[in-house]
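Bumping my old thread because nobody answered last time. Still need a sequence for this structure:
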């Protein structure tokens, strides 16, 4: 019982989609110190009636709370940060995040009027120590700004915990993937790489945001009526691509949906958004000629209260679509949301024909 060990204990997110909560422990079984990586939620759907949000069960680590050295966040997706505002006050440890991710977390804490969380903003290539863990952030690429892998060096060896990532050879926003740092990790030797990447088992390479931007530009330029585009609000690169494509087609952009406004605001606050981007207010957008406006909407996953679902039901205060208008889904179907998305698309087909 006196031998020190390095243990990996996922409390959520392994073998399931959503609510990531990973623990790494170092020490003897009776005396371990812990680090948590990510603290996310899973969204309810048709299979969980009445439940909107699901958090991982933190009971184990709450019992070991005094030995929890910190919570490290890899990126700002809800399945990685969504439970921070719910659980950080219980965990009571310092939280570490890069500027954009920290901005999103701070907004959630403020919304819930939670004070006293020790939120530390770190650089994208930060290196610091907590107890026996020598921690280094490594810049990756993903569908949200500032995705970071975390290197944990311990006296028993090194772990590379990637969080979500893909290899985008031509990202349009933020730094490139730090391949030199990753290669060095390989050269120095790793005990394990704990890796999360959608479609990791599919052969081939992931597409680049640069290619998406080109095809969006072509597609939007070809439209004559109003255009509504939906995407994940957190995909700031995509939001910028859509805005640039709109500008190329001489269309102003109007943002619809709370999370779209929140993310664009956060991106602007940390200096991620190109300064020339501007937006028209919903009340003014309705007065613009149909071929000179593009609406950027939340609701790509069929969420019933999001902007696009309300537009589809003809219940949106600021926008009514009709034939000759176009709706573009610039988003994948997250497994489990198929039914909601197809229902939404059926409503839109009825509306636009
Ligand atoms: Zn992610």
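Sorry it took so long. Here it is:
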């Amino acid at each position: 019982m006196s031998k020190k060990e390095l243990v990996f204990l996922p409390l959520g997110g392994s073998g399931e989609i959503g609510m990531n909560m990973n623990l790494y422990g170092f020490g003897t079984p009776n005396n371990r110190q812990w680090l948590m990586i990510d603290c996310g939620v899973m969204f309810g759907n048709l299979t969980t009636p009445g439940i909107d949000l699901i958090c991982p069960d933190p009971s184990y680590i709450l019992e070991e709370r005094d030995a929890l050295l910190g919570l490290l966040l890899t990126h700002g997706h809800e399945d990685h940060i969504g439970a921070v505002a719910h659980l950080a006050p219980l965990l009571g440890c310092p939280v570490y995040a890069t500027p954009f991710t920290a901005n999103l977390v701070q907004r959630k804490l403020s919304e819930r009027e939670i004070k006293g969380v020790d939120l530390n903003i770190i650089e994208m290539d930060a290196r610091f120590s907590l107890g026996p863990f020598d921690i280094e952030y490594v810049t990756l690429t993903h569908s949200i700004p500032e995705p970071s892998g975390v290197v944990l060096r311990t006296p028993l060896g090194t772990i590379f915990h990637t969080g979500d990532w893909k290899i985008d050879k031509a990202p349009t926003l933020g730094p490139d993937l730090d391949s030199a740092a990753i290669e060095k990790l390989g050269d120095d030797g790793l005990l394990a790489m704990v890796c999360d990447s959608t479609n990791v088992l599919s052969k081939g390479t992931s597409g680049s945001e640069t290619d998406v931007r080109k095809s969006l530009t072509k597609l939007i330029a070809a439209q004559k009526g109003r255009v509504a585009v939906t995407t994940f609000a957190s995909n700031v690169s995509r939001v910028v691509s859509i805005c640039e494509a709109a500008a190329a087609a001489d269309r102003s952009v109007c943002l619809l949906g709370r999370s779209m406004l929140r993310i664009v605001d956060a991106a602007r606050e940390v200096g991620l958004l190109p300064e020339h981007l501007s937006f028209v207010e919903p009340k003014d957008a309705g007065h613009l000629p149909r071929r000179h406006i593009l609406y950027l909407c939340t609701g790509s996953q069929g969420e019933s209260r999001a902007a696009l679902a309300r537009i589809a039901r003809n219940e949106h205060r600021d926008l009514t679509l009709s034939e000759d208008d176009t709706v573009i889904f610039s988003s994948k179907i997250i497994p489990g949301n198929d039914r909601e998305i197809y229902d939404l698309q059926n409503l839109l087909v009825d509306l636009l024909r």
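DSSP finds eleven helices and 17 strands in the chain. Let me know if any region looks off to you.
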